[in-house]
Give the backbone structure.
Amino acid sequence: MRILVTGAQGMLGHEVVRVFEKAGHDVIAADIMPEGTYLDITEPTAIRKALISERPDWLINCAAYTNVDACEDHEDQAFSLNAQGPEYLAQACSRFGVSLLHVSTDYVFDGTKNDPYSEHDLPHPINAYGRSKLAGEYAVRTGTREYIIVRPQWLFGIHGHNFVATIIEIARNHEKIHVVNDQWGSPTYANDLAKAMMMLVELDARGTYHLCNRGRATWYDLAKKAVEFAELDTEVVPVSSQEFPRPAKRPANSILSTKKFTEITGKLMPLWQISLEKYVQHYLVQSRKTSQA
C-alpha cells in the first residue's frame, strides 16, 4: 500500500515510517521540518495538493501539538493543530477516497474511573490538550467515514524527548530523584504502537481503538524500572502529584483497555516492562555513540 505519514519527523511518526517501510509499503514521509516532503496540516490547499500528487491509499496523521502544559497558555495553537488540522485532513481524505488513521490520546478521559477505559466510555477531558484532541476526534468522525482513530498513552521512543530518556539523564547526575506515584497509566513504546497501527491498516479496520503496552504503572514505577535497566544507583523516591503542581491537570487513572484491538487482530500488545528494557538498552548504546563522537 501507499502510505502518506504526516508528522513524520516526530517520535511516533518516525517509527511509523520505519515500520511500514520495513514491511514493504510505499511510504511518503511528510512534515513541516526540512527533511522529507513538506506538508502543513493546517493548510487545506496543501493537503489537497498532496493527496492529488501522491495518491496514497492511507494517510496516517501523527502531527500534533503535544506539549500538555504549554497547551494551557496556547490553546488556540493547540486547537489549530490538534482539531482544525484533522478536520481538513478528514475532509480531503473523504473527497479523494483516502482512508485516514488519526492518532489521539488517553487524555480525552478525566481519570475518575477505577477500571481501564474502553472505547465505549464517554470522554471528559480535564485540560486544554485533551479538549483539543477530543475536538480532533469529532472532526475526523464527522469529516469521513473511512477512518481509524487510535488512542495511545505515555509514549517513549527512540526519536524525540520523552519521560524515560529524561529520567535516565537526571539519574546520571543525581543520587536521588522524586517522581509522582499517584497517576496511573500504561507506558507505551512507540515502535510497538507503530506495529499495532500497521496491523489495523493492513486489516482495513475502521473505528476507534485503544493502543498501549500491557500492564499498569505509575510514573514512579516507570522511572524506577528505567533506572534499574540503565544500571544506575540513583534512589527513586515516590511523591504525590500535589508536591509537583503542573499548569495542566493530569488524569489520576488513564489506563486503557486494548481488548478491542486483541479481538480484531488476535494479538496481545507487549508488556511495558519488556519493551522498556529494549528501549533503555538502545538508548544507552546511542548515548555512548554520541559521547564518543
Remarks:
- Residues 2-161+187-215+254-270 form a domain with the Rossmann fold fold (CATH 3.40.50.720).
- The first helix runs from residue 11 to 22.
- Residues 132 and 277 are 33 Å apart (CA to CA).
